[in-house]
Design brief:
Serine Threonine Protein Phosphatase 5, Tetratricopeptide repeat, six-stranded antiparallel beta sheet, three-stranded mixed beta sheet, Immunoglobulin-like, alpha+beta, 3 domains
């Protein structure tokens, strides 16, 4: 912003010069006019003196005429070279007032209609954000500065999803759809946000949104994933396999989510080929990964937290997507506590503990109730997801 204000200051000086130079020139012309008026007054005084002398009999007619001619020549010599007076009606006060008011009015109009906030945001985005929370805050400011930008709304919605705020994401994607039209990708993102905001409950609205998205683009990845989840939860395993295979074909080789997606396809295939009784069992009954963890708070932090502060206990893949695979939510008042994380606690059915060979346990204290950031945290070392022994986790470090 320093460069901006320096440039604005130079432009202001330039504007002032255009207004002040005529005023300075006007003062010089005024001095010339004053000198001319004095010469005329002296000339008139000389003529009156000659007339008095002629009336007293001191001068005759010839001498009077000669004296008048000399006075006229002196007046002409004194005024020779002076500029002709120009008529002006503005006076001095109005230009000075304009010199002050015009820049002030321009600045006021710029601050009201201009883009100073956008210049600041551009410079701020030149530096990488230090956290997801900072990125979300920046995008919120962008949307406030550009409320009609569907692109800004799209990125803000994605940031809300990464920050575990699906309800906010759903409202943001709805605004993006209203501005940009019912594009398949936007419809898929909107449906996904609604799904998680409704605690992973399928609804006619989700069905309609994904239907519309897939009719416009049969390979829209978000809608394919959601429809696979809905089919799997509804025990329509062949339908789930079909959707997830179509999604798998869209993912590039080396994508970290391919393994989890293939795991979901394999589970659906097992259910499809099993006995009717096995196929009817709920997902929790066939969970293959169960991690027991005891979480406690370091003694040094006892006076720095409140009993009602939220504690998130979760497991995430050591080498994979950063989102939690399974999570539990408790409060500081319940610590120390022993909990079990299993496939039944999966955040998404196609991404479970059993899909990853190695996981990491994390516990976080968050006064704001946000699972992605808080005040204090504890990390466990990478461990096999099939571990049977109870793990111990201590919350003892600032959450950076």
């Amino acid at each position: 912003m320093i460069e901006f204000w320096l440039s604005a200051g130079l432009l202001l000086l330039a504007a002032l010069s255009f207004l002040l130079i005529p005023i300075l020139r006007g003062r010089r012309r005024q001095a010339e006019e004053d000198r001319t008026a004095l010469n005329v007054a002296l000339y008139q005084e000389r003529i009156a003196e000659l007339a008095t002398q002629q009336a007293a009999g001191v001068l005759d007619e010839a001498q009077l005429a000669k004296g008048r001619d000399e006075a006229a020549r002196e007046l002409l010599a004194d005024t020779e070279g002076a500029e002709a007076p120009r008529q002006g009606h503005l006076g001095k006060a109005l230009p000075l007032l304009a010199a002050v008011l015009v820049p002030l009015m321009a600045l006021g109009l710029y601050l009201h209609f201009g883009a100073a906030d956008k210049v600041a945001l551009t410079q701020e985005f030149a530096q990488a954000p230090k956290s997801m929370e900072e990125m979300t805050t920046r995008l919120e400011r962008v949307v406030k500065a550009q409320p009609d930008s569907a692109e800004a709304l799209y990125f803000l919605g994605r940031a809300y999803m990464a920050d575990q705020r699906p309800a906010d994401a759903a409202r943001t994607f709805e605004r993006a759809v209203a501005l940009a039209g019912r594009q398949p990708e936007l419809l898929g993102q909107w449906a996904q946000a609604l799904y998680f905001a409704a605690d992973k409950q399928w609804s006619p609205q989700l069905q309609a949104l994904t239907d519309e998205a897939l009719q416009a683009d049969a390979n829209e990845v978000t809608s394919l994933g959601l429809r696979g989840i809905a089919a799997f939860e509804g025990e329509r395993y062949q339908e789930a396999i079909d959707y997830w295979k179509r999604l798998l074909a869209q993912l590039p080789e080396g994508d970290t989510s391919r393994a989890a997606l293939q795991g979901g396809i394999d589970r659906a295939a097992e259910r499809l080929g099993g006995s009717p009784a096995q196929a009817a069992e709920p997902a929790a009954a066939v969970a293959t990964a169960r991690l027991k963890v005891r979480v406690e708070l370091a003694a040094a932090l006892q006076d720095k937290v409140k009993p009602e502060d939220t504690v998130f206990i979760f497991a995430r893949a050591s080498n994979g997507p950063p989102m939690p695979l399974a999570a539990k939510r408790v409060t500081v008042a319940q610590l120390p506590i022993e909990v079990e994380l299993s496939d039944a606690d999966a955040m998404m059915p196609q991404m479970k503990l059993s899909d990853f060979s190695e996981v990491q346990l994390v516990a976080r204290v968050s006064r704001a109730g946000q699972p992605t950031h808080g005040e204090w945290i504890g990390h466990g070392a990478p461990m096999p997801s099939a571990s049977q022994a109870t793990q111990h986790l201590t919350i003892d470090s600032p959450d950076k």
